[in-house]
């Protein structure tokens, strides 16, 4: 999930949507396709996990709280691609 607008304003270190907006995005998309959230801040990782995104991109340095929120749903951290 990225907000529209300036490409450089799109940062996984920023929370760009409210909880209600995330709920609406994921509820519509999960009917048709998996949802990947680019989230890095601890609160944002927990928010996107709770709405049920498929993957949390850039969510490095997971804490017990973040991992528990993801474990309570089907969200996961995909392995990074190394070239």
UniProtKB/TrEMBL annotation:
Database matches in InterPro entries: Metal_Hydrolase
Protein name as annotated: Uncharacterized protein
Species per Swiss-Prot/TrEMBL record: Pseudomassariella vexata
């Amino acid at each position: 999930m990225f907000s529209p607008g300036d490409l450089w304003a799109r940062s996984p270190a920023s929370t760009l949507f409210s909880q209600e907006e995330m709920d609406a995005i994921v509820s519509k998309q999960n009917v048709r396709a998996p949802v990947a959230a680019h989230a890095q801040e601890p609160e944002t990782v927990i928010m996107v996990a709770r709405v049920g995104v498929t993957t949390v991109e850039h969510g490095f340095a997971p804490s017990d709280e973040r991992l528990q929120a993801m474990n309570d749903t089907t969200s996961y951290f995909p392995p990074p691609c190394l070239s």
